[in-house]
């Protein structure tokens, strides 16, 4: 038996008992006649003591030889500690070591195994197994486990069945790019890894499985933006015989349950906002509503003077930045430069200070008088002491720019409190979105999303105006997940494919099995998927999902620890009937 | 709202209440003036009634138009039923329909959606979404969910953390064949899908994660034997600071918990048997111990006469078949033919009837007298009324043949009771096994298994004799899972790779990250993996895992429902820098 207790377990009540502990040497403090060592495992740290009076020569020698991260097993007696450490649960005791065995040595680790480490991101990823020994990473993984368990408990208690869907499926080149898997037994053919179990969960609904969920890996071969992973985890759900309202209620319940169980936070009913309102009020389909700064549209009160920039703009829109009237000229110039950065792309920014004394001072005083500016204050909800920031131009672009500014200012003003949770349902998404490059419409969610009742006809006349039974759950400005009511009628699905530019042959080759299935009594159904990585990160009060994944990949899709992907044996390629087009 | 109740819910207590139900039409019985229909969903069946006196003309017309598997929503009143059906929980009531809406029609399904269907395996797989509507399949999937939930609950309660390990890893061409995934972002390089998370779970141990589990998909590109799947699910576990005994106790506890919670069966401590004993007593490393028929070795009592076949044999071995002394000559001849089948491969079979009167009658009475045969009876444990079946020849082959005969006879005699559960730990497996084709030794489990203490030296002199800290859990003659104590010392791991025929360069290229990790304080660790598909099937009292997988693949690795694998767009291949070696 390697241990009778773990390193986080001993208390004063264990005094004088004989214990066996195993773990890693965190630190050694050698005072010559007495040596202390901190022994660490997953559960905590226990102080070990060796001294010349009570420990044998042999044990003292071993103690002196200990290095950081050595793995040792000790036997000893739990003693009251003279200088207590109130910062750790075991801080009142120490263990006088009577036997010690080095189970494994360690060479010097490439970074310190401390909460604040000296290791940079790259080195920590290469030695991820050492990084995981650090409390912040270890605790994130344990936190993730707890969230996943609560999800399963909640859904299972509500009669949802977790069904495993296959990983080796078929490539459907629409949507994002698939990872493909060459088949050896069916040469020249390929499986694809699922981007999501979408069609399978719909088939489970056709199969009567009624309430399905799965915590499941999904795969997308995308050029990785920051904080995306080629493999990621979804909480994937589907329900039959439901309307949108039923689905929102179940998953609002799940989210509330998680916040309650994991964070101890009780939330009331989640607010809802249409996509159109979200875009108008926040310039964003995933608004962070922990703070205000709602958009105030100023066309009516800013296009009546000789200011050509506003007069030529499709949209003039502003926000009131709380307490920022006191910004210096230099601070404001910095803001103007910030919105002009290519990542944001505004041409400039107009501002108006709403002074504490009720007067206004703007960058456009030449054109607008106090009365005009007072109307801007009303439109943006500015109060004395606020700074009104105004952008103008093409409506969509300007909203996006102002949204970026709003988020940046909230960050600077400390309004994005990580311990506050502000969920929001965004509903009534457009069914389609225009691809500006090709001029073609794509499904905004996916081709299985149903339009709102009665809107099929609009598809022919004004496709961009068709709204869908589609919804996202937004938490603190992050899209946690989304879903929709699906099409369950073969004819409607086939019309939808046509509108998305599929020939009947393409639709049949790729999704024939689904349309076949719809002929045999497909029930009305819908569902949603939450991104587990993101959900866990936000619940954990952090921004990057990588910190909540045991073995993440870097931005080039590489696992730098195991050095994958890698070249394979030419024999393997040959068995797959493949060769490299251009030799690498 | 599509339903106020489900179709398995209504009882006499609901009488006279107004309900809304949705589901599939199972059957319609049209008596002209009255029509009954069974409405089915995941939860059960409720009888609907329509009659000319109480239902409108319009509703009667719709009722008459209903076909099998139509999806309908009805409103109605719960009534006491005149002819009760005691076979279903809702059998005391029926619902008089006041409103009905056809939600979706169905064409005639290709097989009947009944417990006993008229559909063969192939058609049921092609229309798996219809097969899943059938109770046996649906119940298997729900059963699987329950088992998986209990596994998670049990392990989580014991402080195990479920950690997701990556699916896109690196190919290691030893073991079985990997599925590979070409990387677009790293051209000419490939990921591999994991055959198991073996190295990652060991790295988690190095990372201090101490008690890990995961219910996880694994992948093997093997030529599929019956009842194998290219993707399968493991309950994968690993623990640090443990000895074999600790691991056996935890997973014996898990198995006992499952049998208790799922089957209501309380089991005592599981018996254990060494690999050598299992081979000697049952000719099999996964013996079914629900019944006896242990092997009796007869060399000492059968090689002293002039019977050359026995005298030339390395091993003479028999079993006592209970109550089979009464077999006719014809029945015994059939047995002899059975062991001679190429799948079994015995040259012949000697038998001795131990008659109820205590006398013996054998096929070798010319050579052996009553006294000899009485010794055979003692060696095989035969009692009056039994039949002793004896095979001889090369020891290993003969044991395998007799094991096959033992299982066949048990099946015929009804000794393999599906409601009885007889677990068995088989321990002390050999570390290596000889590949008879190449004459080389392979790791019997995998290259990370540690030899028994003090046996490293034997590797040079008698590799086949080295025993490992490796164990399997056997349940009713099936291997449920297995595992081992791992090597955690870099030097020993490197020696092991050498003995398995890796050059130092190969070992470094493929497992360098693991050996590197062992330098930084790797703790002693070990673990095991259960096959979830098999475990669920056996707990469910069935033999084929396919029946417990929602969307299984066939023996050619094809998903016949979605028709995968399939050719992909040439553009996709080009992006991956691949071409087909031989055009298909």
UniProtKB/TrEMBL annotation, chains A, B:
Enzyme Commission (EC) number: 6.1.1.12
Coiled-coil residue windows: none
Localization: Cytoplasm
Amino acids binding L-aspartate: 174, 220, 445, 486
Plastid listed as a keyword: no
Entry function: Catalyzes the attachment of L-aspartate to tRNA(Asp) in a two-step reaction: L-aspartate is first activated by ATP to form Asp-AMP and then transferred to the acceptor end of tRNA(Asp).
Protein name: Aspartate--tRNA ligase
Gene behind the chain: aspS
């Amino acid at each position: 038996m390697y241990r009778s207790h773990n390193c986080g377990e001993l208390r004063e009540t264990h005094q004088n008992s004989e214990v066996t502990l195993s773990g890693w040497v965190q630190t050694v403090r050698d005072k010559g006649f007495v040596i202390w060592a901190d022994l660490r495992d997953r559960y905590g740290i226990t102080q070990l003591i060796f001294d010349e009076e009570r420990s044998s020569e042999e044990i003292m020698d071993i103690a002196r030889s200990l290095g950081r991260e050595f793995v040792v097993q000790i036997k000893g007696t739990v003693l009251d500690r003279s200088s207590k450490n109130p910062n750790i649960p075991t801080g009142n005791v120490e263990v006088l070591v009577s036997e010690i065995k080095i189970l494994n040595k360690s060479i010097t680790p490439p970074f310190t195994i401390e909460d604040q480490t000296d290791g940079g991101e790259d080195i920590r990823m290469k030695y991820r197994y050492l990084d995981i020994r650090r409390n912040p990473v270890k605790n994130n993984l344990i936190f993730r486990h707890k969230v996943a368990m609560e999800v399963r408990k909640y859904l299972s208690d509500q009669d949802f069945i977790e069904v495993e869907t296959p990983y080796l499926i078929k490539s459907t080149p629409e949507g994002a790019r698939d990872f493909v898997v060459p088949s050896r037994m069916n040469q020249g053919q390929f499986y694809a890894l699922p981007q999501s179990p979408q069609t399978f969960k719909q088939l489970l609904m056709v199969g009567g499985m009624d309430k399905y969920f799965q915590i499941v890996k999904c795969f997308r071969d995308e050029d990785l933006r920051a904080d995306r992973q080629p493999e990621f985890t979804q909480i994937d759900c589907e329900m039959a015989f439901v309307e949108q309202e039923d689905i929102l209620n179940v998953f609002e319940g799940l989210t509330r349950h998680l916040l309650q169980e994991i964070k101890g936070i009780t939330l009331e009913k989640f607010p809802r906002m249409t996509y159109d309102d979200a875009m108008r009020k926040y310039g964003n389909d995933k608004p962070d509503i922990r703070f205000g700064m709602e958009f105030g549209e100023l066309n009516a009160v800013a296009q009546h003077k000789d200011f050509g920039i506003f007069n030529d703009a499709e949209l003039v829109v502003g926000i009131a930045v709380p307490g920022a009237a006191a910004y210096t000229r230099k601070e404001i110039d910095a803001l103007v430069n910030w919105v002009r950065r290519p990542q944001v792309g505004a041409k400039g920014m107009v501002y108006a200070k709403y002074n504490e004394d009720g007067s206004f001072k703007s960058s456009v005083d030449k054109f607008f008088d106090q009365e005009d500016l007072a109307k801007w204050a009303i439109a943006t909800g500015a109060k004395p002491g606020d700074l009104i920031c105004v952008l103008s131009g093409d409506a969509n672009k300007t909203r996006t720019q102002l949204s970026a500014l709003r988020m940046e200012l909230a960050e600077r003003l400390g309004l994005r409190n990580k311990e506050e949770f502000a969920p929001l349902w965004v509903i009534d998404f457009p069914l389609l979105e225009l691809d500006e490059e090709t001029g073609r419409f794509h499904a905004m969610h996916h081709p299985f999303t149903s339009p709102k009742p009665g809107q099929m006809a609009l598809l022919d006349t004004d496709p961009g105006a068709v709204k869908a039974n589609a919804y996202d759950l937004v938490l603190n400005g992050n899209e946690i997940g989304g879903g929709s009511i699906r099409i369950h009628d073969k004819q409607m699905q086939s019309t939808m494919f046509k509108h998305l530019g599929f020939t009947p042959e393409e639709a049949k080759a790729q999704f024939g099995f689904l349309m076949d299935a719809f002929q045999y009594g497909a029930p009305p159904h819908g569902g949603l998927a939450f991104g587990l990585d993101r959900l866990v990160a936000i619940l954990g009060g952090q921004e990057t999902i990588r910190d909540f994944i045991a073995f993440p990949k870097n931005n080039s899709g590489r696992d730098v620890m195991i050095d994958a992907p890698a070249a394979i044996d030419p024999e393997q390629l040959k068995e797959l009937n493949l060769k490299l087009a251009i030799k690498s």
